[in-house]
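Narrative summary of target 7.
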Amino acid sequence: MTDDRPYHHGNLRRAVLDAALDVIADQGPGAVSLRDLARRAGVSHAAPAHHFKDRAGLLTAVAAEGNALLAESLEAAADLEDLGVRYVRFALAHPAHFQVMYQPHLLHPDAPDLAAARDRVDRTLRAAIAALPETDRGPDAELARLAAWSAAHGFATLVLSGSLAPGGDPAETFRALTHVMFNPASD
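Modeled conformation, tokenized:
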């Protein structure tokens, strides 16, 4: 084997994750195979299993990384509106992560890294909801959390699937949408 292969630089795990993200972006998570990723990385077919155990382990690592990146972005949000815009921007910037993060049947859902990253995302959204006055969010904070997440996730999914092609920056379109939903013109 030659020294220009990624694993010789001490980062086979990263090389396999990057290759998996490329495959997911091009063909979807169903096309991911450890054997193919090993071939792409120039290593034996068993080498990725040392880092991920199995396909679900690899996809769990992708989902954990995606949730950690999302949490980092959301934690910098100024308010709930900014949080939603950041969610949409994350989905558009990391479509391969986004495709895997919300498919529990592909993952080891109880993996500690995944659970911790998901918890960071959830805590950030809950804090943004809690910061709203009850007159703005209603009496049921959990319902408000679900509504906010559904709106951002649904919008991002529509854009990523090609079902919605907003003009201009989709995240800014989402910001305008939130104004229409939550600040309707008075009659």
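The radius of gyration is 19 Å.
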